[in-house]
Amino acid sequence: MANGTILILNFVGDILFNKRNTLKTDMMKDINEIVSALLDGTLQESETIELKRTLPHDLPNIAKTIVGIANSGGGYLILGAIEQPRDGRMIVGVDNAAAIQRRLTQILSEYTIGVIGTPYLYTIDSKRVVVFRIEEAESVAYYSRRQTSPARLIAYTRNRIGSRIKEEAEEKKYYATVYKYMTIEAFLISLYTKTWRFFEPSKWNDKYEQRFYCANYQIDGAKNATPQLFATCVTREKNSEAAWKVYSHGQGLGSHCVQLELNIDKLRGELRNSGLTIAEKPVEYKDEKYILDLHIEGKSKDYTKYFTSFSVVKFLKLLTLKREAYNYEQEVRLFAIPKDYSERSKGNNSLYKDLAIDWSKVIRKVRIDKACTDAELISVQQACFSVGINPVVNGYNFIGGILKPVNCVDIEFERFDIDAMPGSSRITIK
Fold first, then answer.
1. Which domains does the chain have, with CATH numbers?
2. pLDDT tens, residue by residue, 225-274
3. Structure pTM?
4. With CB atoms counted within 10 Å of each terminal CB, which end of the chain scores lower, N or C?
5. How far apart are CA 158 and CA 279, in angstroms?
6. Is 291 within 8 Å of 284 (Cβ atoms)?
7. In which band, very low, low, confident or very high, does the pLDDT at 354 lie, cut at 50, 70 and 90?
8. Are 170 and 86 in contact (CB under 8 A)?
9. How would you label 106-136 residue by residue, b for 16+ Cβ within 10 Å and e otherwise?
């Protein structure tokens, strides 16, 4: 085959094109740029690109790399190429592309969760190269030995440390359930409007948490990498006394807390229907000095990790830093990012974004303040009926005799007191 002519064998179909051709889709254009850099001997490994002579026998280890790429914005695993060119050429080729395809499929099915990847086979100068395109994780991608230890799921990311690219464990616990605390008033509004309100980070109360969103970015790569976005939080902590106290204040409906137990997988599906880009990241807790010094090159040991090769992914990582005094919250942040953005809006509409939610699909269980009156519980019942939920309270009958609408989903509601103690409050000590 003549130099510069490339045969692509997508494993789902064959495409023949010349290096000089213009490709029609963004995905193929990206791949074409990768191949052009391979031909030129200029492709470099990074957080999103990994070069391998062939697929290693250690499948779990390569699975960590794939997960790391997915959690770092998506990218490529390229098999049949070396980082140090020989006579300007990076292509060395692989012997058995079909077997590599099968092993890549095996890796995704047995060692990863939340990873989408497509292998493409190229023939360049009679040598076979596999370009494995790894999509950016929609939420969080996990590494897991599903057959032996399915409960141990690890979310890896890739970071440049000096001249090396290293996978780092970011989150070691997979969560299928999360919790949302709010006042009953906010709960009623959310039900009647069938929405979940996400706020712009500039309106967060904690100045430490606003810090990196409101910063003036003048570093390389920052243009279009600090978009206007909106966020909310959930927690993995089922019994948070602090949350119950925070959301039990004021008067009336604002003085009672409600805790929603949510199916995170269903919630992700609902949020994706918003038309916005949805990101999900566990909060990382650091001491105050770490946060204050992080942006100072030469003073922070992690400056390079966050600010070199800056991207939207690193911007979101900055927005999930929080003081370690709040570690008890075990917070997970959900971000909603407009897909088309230029400058951040300065108008009042920039304060928040209401995302449509089918609450009957995402709520598993509800805890509600035991101090609520019958009238308040009736208000909750009517609001639940409006979204197809029938609140079932053990040992309690709603007053008023309101008939349950058809097609309502029964969901358990627990009247809950965070300060309740089993047994007698008055004890005898002998």
1. 5-171 (3.30.950), 177-416 (no CATH)
2. 888 899 999 998 888 888 888 888 767 677 899 999 999 888 988 998 88
3. 0.69
4. C
5. 17
6. no
7. very high
8. no
9. ebbeebbbbbebebbbbbbeeebbbbbbbbb
